[in-house]
Amino acid sequence: MRTSLLLTLVATLSLFAPLAAQSQDAVLNLYSARHYSTDEALYANFTKSTGIRINRVDADDAGILARLKAEGAASPADVILLVDAARLYRGDVDGLFRPIKSAVLEGAIPAQYRGKATPEGTTWFGFSTRARVVLYDKIKVKREDVDTYEELADPKNKGRICIRSGSHPYNLSLFGAITEHLGEQKAEAWLKGVVSNLARDPKGGDTDQIKAVGSGECQVAVSNSYYVARLMRSSNPEDRALMEKVGVVFPNQQSWGTHLNIAGGAVAKNARNSANAVKFMEYLASAEAQNYFANGNNEWPTAKGVKVSNPALKAMGGDDFKAETIPLNTIGGNQTRVQQMLDRVGFK
Ligand code: FE
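Above: inputs. Below: predicted complex with fe (iii) ion.
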């Protein structure tokens, strides 16, 4: 009787065991802003090879950062996956991450795709890259008129450009990079030029800008590369027909290279399963995981020596292009200045 009561009690307790209270060697609590079907295989393979079960909380970048702040020291999060360098930078500055030391990660992930290096370790690591490319109407626009970011501000492109909100993290990161390359004064003049070239007020996401070129509402757009790939590979024939009209440029091939952004991960400040968290981060840098992680969203892997073959990326010229090399953490540091410039030039 006493034994069965005890067993019932144990069973009940484990049913109600919060995400946090499970043993160090069995579980990992993941807050993820990535939601792709290939990621399921990725997580399943990790569990199979380590025995560590993954509990996942899905939200977008902003939602995850807000949740971590609200939960504070009580947060059950162990690993955090975000999809933008500006947001990773923000999480780091807000003290939500725990720096980690890992020879595996430092060996695999190039320094330009990492967060701040402190004596305690590195604050985050990037696991896939995406390029911020320029799209153009193949009939109305000459490719050589839009093959640099600088030209987006040139009067020759007046009334042509569609772009999402200037203060969206993807644009904050791009503009932060441009500030790094041109200096603040020229970057602000550039932003002003882009605003005066807009075909319409910024609205919608990246896919909407590409479609607006396809439908003729704009002649030039800016988008992350994976949205382009997604439309090219779409099961909807209308999407593929639309993409026939749209040219893709990896800008600045003759100068500093096309702007890259990343999806990346960090160990949570209050992680209780921190050994598992590091193990998971190291797994994400492995060739197998890199393949799933990058291909699942039509991106490129960050780990040294890992190559993926993706027909859509190849078709748009993404197998061989010059990418910028400035550290993404530096770009994050320009966010506040960029936002002030956007306000001054009236970039919504
Ligand atoms: Fe996105």
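The chain has two domains: 26-128+260-310, 130-257+321-345.
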